[in-house]
From TrEMBL:
PANTHER family: DIHYDROFOLATE SYNTHETASE-RELATED (PTHR11136:SF0), FOLYLPOLYGLUTAMATE SYNTHASE-RELATED (PTHR11136). Signal peptide: none annotated. The keyword Nucleotide-binding applies. The keyword Plastid does not apply. Pfam families: Mur_ligase_C, Mur_ligase_M. Residues 51-265 form the Mur ligase central domain. It catalyses: 10-formyltetrahydrofolyl-(gamma-L-Glu)(n) + L-glutamate + ATP = 10-formyltetrahydrofolyl-(gamma-L-Glu)(n+1) + ADP + phosphate + H(+); (6S)-5,6,7,8-tetrahydrofolyl-(gamma-L-Glu)(n) + L-glutamate + ATP = (6S)-5,6,7,8-tetrahydrofolyl-(gamma-L-Glu)(n+1) + ADP + phosphate + H(+); (6R)-5,10-methylenetetrahydrofolyl-(gamma-L-Glu)(n) + L-glutamate + ATP = (6R)-5,10-methylenetetrahydrofolyl-(gamma-L-Glu)(n+1) + ADP + phosphate + H(+); 7,8-dihydropteroate + L-glutamate + ATP = 7,8-dihydrofolate + ADP + phosphate + H(+). One of its GO terms (molecular function) is dihydrofolate synthase activity. This is Dihydrofolate synthase/folylpolyglutamate synthase. It comes from the Bacteria. Functions in two distinct reactions of the de novo folate biosynthetic pathway. Catalyzes the addition of a glutamate residue to dihydropteroate (7,8-dihydropteroate or H2Pte) to form dihydrofolate (7,8-dihydrofolate monoglutamate or H2Pte-Glu). Also catalyzes successive additions of L-glutamate to tetrahydrofolate or 10-formyltetrahydrofolate or 5,10-methylenetetrahydrofolate, leading to folylpolyglutamate derivatives.
Length: 430
């Protein structure tokens, strides 16, 4: 769609228009969006938390949202990408924003931007901020899209910033080392404001930047920590201790680390937003995030995980190891060509007995055949002929084949990309 839509057009028509009007889908830099944000006047008095990091951003955002809601505050949450519906990116008080509300903000942005072009992500970031201002939310939780320094979310003057982890991903934009990537992510920190880092081994570049701008740096293992047994866990911050906490509803090995980052942020902001212990307990139990080690109810066991880089794949592998015994594991995988496929496969190792390799749509897609070739090179078949490797045109056809071939006591894991998980999720929701 090239003609400018109106508020009478559908959200899908608006999104098609947004994708068509800027020369590139990713255009790092803040000059254009900063100028439009000034014209729109997107600021309001609520507390603003920015969450960045290679992995763990979405989970940390979900726990912050859930805890603050349980404490009785009005909450806006902005995350990306979405899995099934675009509206998932913007939530108000735990409810996904409706089409009409989003369209109204996009139409307003379109009128105000004039000669300045914006990317799809920049438009939607501004739309979220406008909605949060319109509803005057007490607290907004904003997930960084890519990196930090030049990401559209970084126009927000955060009251608290969180970097969950620093690992290798998006190297064409952020650099090839943890030091380079850490420097980019550290730029969401603000002078004199709480700067939470839950990476157990933060890059020196992140530490140096926080010191240079005089951020109030909270480090995991120094300023906050956690301990737990099989029944419950406890958080210890600088001045607060939260005992007898139930484990988060979000599954996985790293969720206590993510929860600790959220609780450190909550402690650092306690002067503006008091949160009682009961709200923390309720919030951790109620937090949900589709596609992050999501185990679907019923038989056979189906696990959905958007793991698409080596660090996330290592966490997924650890989580799979922690599950009960299954005779065979069937893996549906589809990846983009700018991800480190070989390292992701190495982290999974021989945990997968039967591989179903799917091609993805779009310019960044990696073919299923390419994934299959890497698997057979890394893991030659053993005496039992395992692993088996087959190729499919789509994630849905790969998933359907896996469901036909698997035993009822087996498990299936769908991973490798948001696109892969979203396609299977849409199939299951029909």
């Amino acid at each position: 769609m090239t003609a400018v839509p109106t508020e009478q057009h559908s959200l899908d028509e608006w999104l098609a228009y947004l994708e068509s009007i800027h020369s590139t889908s990713i255009d790092m830099g803040l000059d254009r969006i900063n100028e439009v944000a000034k014209r729109l006047d997107v600021d309001w008095s609520g507390v603003k938390i920015i969450v960045g990091g290679t992995n763990g951003k979405g989970s940390t955002c979900a726990m912050l949202e859930s805890i603050y809601l349980a404490a009785g505050y009005s909450v806006g949450m902005y995350t990306s990408p979405h899995l099934v519906h675009f509206n998932e990116r913007i939530r108000l008080n735990g409810i996904i924003a409706d089409d009409a509300s989003i369209i109204a903000q996009l139409a307003h942005i379109e009128k105000v931007r004039a000669e300045i072009t914006l990317t799809y992500f920049e438009y939607t970031t501004l739309a979220a901020l406008l909605l949060f201002k319109r509803h005057n939310v007490d607290v907004a939780v904003l997930e960084v899209g890519l990196g930090g320094r030049l990401d559209a979310v970084n126009i927000v003057d955060a009251d608290c910033s969180i970097v969950t982890s620093v690992n290798i991903d998006h190297t064409q934009w952020l650099g090839n080392t943890r030091e380079e990537i850490g420097f980019e992510k550290a730029h969401i920190f603000r002078a004199g404001k709480p700067a939470i880092c839950s990476d157990p081994e933060p890059p020196q570049s992140l530490l140096d930047y926080a010191k240079r701008i005089d951020a109030d740096l909270w480090l995991f293992g120094k300023d906050f920590n956690y301990a737990g047994d099989k029944q419950q866990w406890a958080f210890a911050g600088r001045t607060q201790r939260r005992n007898a906490l139930a484990y988060p509803a979000l599954r996985g090995a790293n969720q206590l680390l993510n929860a600790s980052a959220a609780l450190a942020a909550i402690e650092s902001l306690r002067g503006r937003l008091a949160v009682p212990i009961q709200a923390i307990r309720e919030g951790l139990l109620q937090a949900s995030l589709p596609g992050r080690f999501q185990i679907l109810p019923g038989q056979p066991t189906v696990i959905l995980d958007v793991a698409h880089n080596p660090h996330a794949a290592a966490v997924l592998a650890h989580n799979l190891d922690g599950m009960a015994y299954f005779p065979y594991t069937h893996g549906v995988i589809g990846m983009l060509n700018d991800k480190d496929c070989e390292e992701v496969l190495k982290k999974m190792g021989r945990r997968i007995d039967h591989w179903y390799c799917a091609s993805l749509p779009g310019d960044r897609a990696r073919s299923g055949q390419d994934i299959a070739n890497k698997i057979t090179a890394l893991f030659p078949a053993d005496k039992d002929g395992l692993p088996t490797v087959t190729v499919y045109d789509t994630p849905v056809s790969a998933y359907e084949s896996a469901r036909e071939k698997m035993g009822n006591d087996d498990r299936i894991v769908v991973f490798g990309s948001f696109v892969t998980v979203a396609a299977v999720m849409q199939k299951l929701n029909k």
